[in-house]
Amino acid sequence: MKIKYYTPSDSKLAYSVGVTLDRFIKSKQDDFPFASGELSQLLRDIALAAKIVNRETNRAGLANIVGALGNTNVQGEEQQKLDVIANIRFTRALTKGGEVCAIVSEEDDEVIDLQNKSGKYVVAIDPLDGSSNIDVNISIGTIFSIYRRVTPVGSPIQPEDIMQPGMQQVAAGYVLYGSSTMLVYTTGHGVNGFTYEASLGEFFLSHPDMKAPEDGLIYSINEGTYDLFEPGLKVYIEQCKKREFRARYIGSLVADFHRNLLKGGIYIYPATPKSPSGKLRLLYEANALAFIAEQAGAKASDGENRILEIRPTSLHQRTPLYIGSKVMVGEAESLLRKERNQVLEK
Asked: Where in the cell is it found (predicted)?
């Protein structure tokens, strides 16, 4: 019997499509000896729901699922039809996956207790960030944080399982539904990005070991509220203009963050007299992106404190957010501090 051995040269006519998300996750399971595969399965469940939401967003105009639903969520924001659809898809996937005991969602007033006694994880999620942009075909996203519960498995969910600071995340990520659909995540061992290949139904590794530039030339902020900015932030924005930085603001948090992560820049959503605590949510927006940012060599703060060290006190707690290239965030913090100190001295 003749035996032929495979060599890479045998496949010159068929290019490699790359490493799938599933295979990549399996290869990294040894990073989590405590997880016994549950965290890997949980990430797969999120990826599955992301594929379904991607399909829904792509056919939204044809299926009459764009526009407002007519309800408001706990934030007082008008729910879009796709907000509700995405929330259902992710909740269903996480419930059926069996690894999660509770979910915190932007679209639900209270914690969703899945009554899963064997679930070791809590997921905080914004199922569809920037969903109002779907009507005008602008990029939107999903943001998620994963925590290990701290109370014993099998016991009822307790507040301490939910109210954990961002530094206790075991994984976090986002999905960007844009010109291509990408899933970017970290488990505390660097950041990796995967692009969805629709014809194969798989996410493939496209951006291994992502690193944010230490400095950048892009600033992303809604300058329509400039008159409400505190003095230090006004000084920083004026400096950006004098240095001929590029203003880029989509109004979709995931899309703005993703661009700046790749190209170098800062995203700012400040506190204002109108929103003294800021507008972005700590548990399922700021914490996730801050974890990713730091793992990629970037920085995230509320203008004064490290985001990942803030201990949450309420489910839908808001926070200002300064996130992006280290040098740019550091400069903004320095100017904020300087102007605040001058006010105190007066």
From this structure: Cytoplasm
180 is in an annotated binding site: no
pTM of the model: 0.91
To the question of whether residue 40 is assigned a binding role by annotation, the answer is: no
Residues 180 and 38 in one domain: yes
**Residue 38 marked in a binding site:** no
What are the pLDDT digits (tens) for 79-120?
778 888 899 999 999 999 999 999 999 999 999 999 998 899
Where does a domain end: 141, 172, 207? 207
Q: List pLDDT tens digits, range 166-220.
A: 999 999 999 999 889 999 999 999 999 999 999 999 999 999 999 999 999 999 9
Where does residue 344 rank: exposed (0-12), middle (13-18), buried (19+ CB within 10 A)?
exposed
Please tell me whether residues 48 and 191 are part of one structural domain.
Answer: yes
User: For residue 48, what are the contacts with CB-CB under 8 A and spacing of at least 6?
Assistant: 93
Instruction: Judge whether 249 is annotated as a binding position.
Output: yes
User: Is 202 labelled a binding residue?
Assistant: no
